[in-house]
């Protein structure tokens, strides 16, 4: 079984460009999570707070195989990461890890499948920030309540950056874009309305009072290709997607939607949108979650198992091959990231979309 899972992982390995949360660990080389001897978390039960200090990976004794729902296509980055994490759970607990790709409705289909399962820590799902922030705003049929779920661990946290092409537009920085906009409409590449890059660009240009319109596509790679070819003036995309364009000199990063400057590209110190005068902070974010009524001590044990596995050479090799930079913060940290992003998305939706 181990060889089979490893084969699936390597077959699905690809460059990480997971779309769709906010924290400061988004520099060029994020810190590897420190190995923890215990996990300090609070859960709630009939008698009040549950003391789960001293929890280790071995504190959880699963009675059945793990079922991990992935609301993204097989072979994609989310699927690859789920299989890497699944390999660690399999080795720790001696149970098979079954990855089910249940795509559609921004994760609502996979969430419904999780909801229908018996509450157990082996019943898991890989989620994206959009399912709790953007999807409910743009699709009223999606009604996911964050309090119905418990977050096990973060998986990915990545910066979103605004890129331009100086060779086509003459724009090299934010001031240059503003100057360009004095005489021209800004045409930007993004995903469709309801996506993170469309919302961030709409909010930024709206707050700056710049006339702009979107040319939409189904992927950030296509958006950046449109900038590089001169079909659009700029685009917002995850830092990992823009890396190849910055390295070959095709594109220049001019602003990052983060709390700190982005220094992940050699020779660049990309300023924050906040430093330009616009309080817009948003990161792509993916995580592992389960049902809210699962025993907190079991959730804490699984998180510790993931942290322990992240220290192994096997994990590091698999992550390197997948261009995966892990973000393995605890569930409470992940939940706060989602809540903060929800406030920003609601503000942008009410101002620029709910007309």
TrEMBL record:
Leader sequence segment: 1-19
Annotated stretches, region: Disordered: 21-58
Family according to the record: Belongs to the UPF0065 (bug) family.
InterPro entries: BUG, Bug_dom1
PROSITE patterns associated with the record: PROKAR_LIPOPROTEIN
Protein name, entry field: Tripartite tricarboxylate transporter family receptor
SUPFAM superfamilies: Periplasmic binding protein-like II
UniProtKB keywords: Receptor, Signal
Source organism of this protein record: Roseburia inulinivorans
CDD domains linked: PBP2_Bug_TTT
Transmembrane stretches, start-end: none
